[in-house]
Amino acid sequence: MSESTFMGVERDQIDWSPRIDFTKCNDCMECVKFCPHQVFEVDENAKPKLKVKNPNNCVVFCRACSKTCGPDAITFPDKTETTKMIKAIRKAEKEASTDE
Amino acid sequence: MSKSICVLPCNGLDKCAGDLSRRVAMQVAQSEEVELICPVLLNQNKSRYEKALEAGDLTVIDGCNTRCASKLAGALEIPIKEKVNVSEVAKALDIKLGVEIREDQETQAVVQAVLEKINSSAADQAESEFIVPEAIEYNTFSHGKFIFKVPKANYFFNENDCWVTVSGNMARIGVSDYVQQNLSDILYVDPPEIGQEFEQFDDLGSIESGKAVFEIISPVTGTVVAVNMGLNDAPELVNESPYEKGWLVEVNLKDFEEDQDLLHDSQSYFEFLQRKVAEVDV
Predict the structure, then answer these.
(1) pLDDT tens digits, residue range B24-41?
(2) Between B120 and B155, whose confidence is greater?
(3) Which residues of B touch A34 (CB under 8 A)?
(4) Disruptive mutation site among B208, B215, B216, B274 for chain A (greatest number of A CBs within 10 Å)
């Protein structure tokens, strides 16, 4: 599934998805098993096997997959910065619609 | 005599963190009230421990975030009373465990810290100042065989399906009916620490069923003043009463007006949830 907006902001305007540190990743695929939103993809023939296939499926502010990661290889963008950005976009859109 | 605590550790054979959970478990098990549960035998033959688990509360010691011991308890549907994660304790102490099994000052310090965490009773918390409303009215809608409830008023939600309801400067936080139905039977509530300061969209602990772990994403900015102690013995209250008896955290608000900018009110969440449920297979 994919929510196309988050609090009224287009999802693809919000940069929120897992970042994988492949120097730590041990291919256990716990994150893939955990995430119900098909954010990750596994390609057995590729190197690395793990890929963030659908970043916009990732639930904004959810970091739960990083907690399933034994080697601690998953990080996320800064939450405070992301919140600020979402507020700024909402404000700009509001102003744009009242200008019309 | 009947044992009153059962300890289920990580198997702890191959890596440092696992080895430490084994060491902690051995120390805890020196007390007569504690029954040590072997994860391999439990997995093979649950009935071997049935009596002990009926008589005692389960404490789980996970080595790393793969959380084999927690997952085993979840898969066998054994409610967890308390749990501790060796890697997280090490991280808080700024100690890197690495893979290799070792016995030195650092690992001894981690063992000690984990033991202290297990032994410390729940943090003292002040009497609740939150004024609970007399009766809450709900809107409902159905989707397939599911019926979803959302309070008619006075609850605010983020799009991560966590709610907040406010009384003066205090607020309570919990998860929506949608979350508890998705998770089904909740076996464990991992609360945040009393006194912890947090911002809107930080995580405030988690809840866990046999199916999944759900991270509580805070709808507001504030300080934790209390956690729902009733959930220690009855995590199922989150299933039975997600908006009332199953509240998770009580907080002191910082700036609710600011928080509301990124929250739905009850009516708007009701509409949001209907759209969401229509899109997802529940």
Answers:
(1) 999 999 988 899 999 999
(2) B155
(3) 212-213
(4) B215
Taking the Cβ of residue B57 and every Cβ of chain A, the question of whether any pair is shorter than 8 Å is answered with no
Residue B123 is predicted with a pLDDT of: 53
Output the pLDDT for position B124. 57
Cis, peptide link before residue A48, omega less than 30° from 0: yes
Parent domain of B144: 138-279
> Cα separation of B280 and B258, whole Å?
31
Instruction: List the single residue in A with minimal CA-CA distance to B261.
Output: A87
User: Considering the domain boundaries, does residue B127 fall inside one?
Assistant: no
Residues B148 and B252 in one domain: yes
Q: Using a CB-CB distance cutoff of 8 angstroms, which residues of chain B are in contact with residue A83?
A: 199-201, 262
If asked whether residues B262 and B159 sit together in one domain, one would say yes
- Domain count for chain B: 2
Please report whether residue B128 resides in a domain: no
Q: What is residue A60's predicted lDDT score, i.e. its pLDDT?
A: 94
Partner A contacted by B65 (CB < 8 A): yes
Q: What ipTM is given for this predicted complex?
A: 0.85
Could you say which of B66, B88, B119 is where a domain stops? B119
For B17, nearest residue in chain A (alpha carbons): A70
* Interface check B75 vs A, CB under 8 A: no
Residue B45 covered by a domain: yes
DSSP string, B238-273: HHH-TTTTT--EEEEES-HHHHHTT-B-HHHHHHHH
Q: Rounded CA gap, B210 and B218, in Å?
A: 23
The whole-angstrom separation of Cα A31 and Cα B101 is: 26
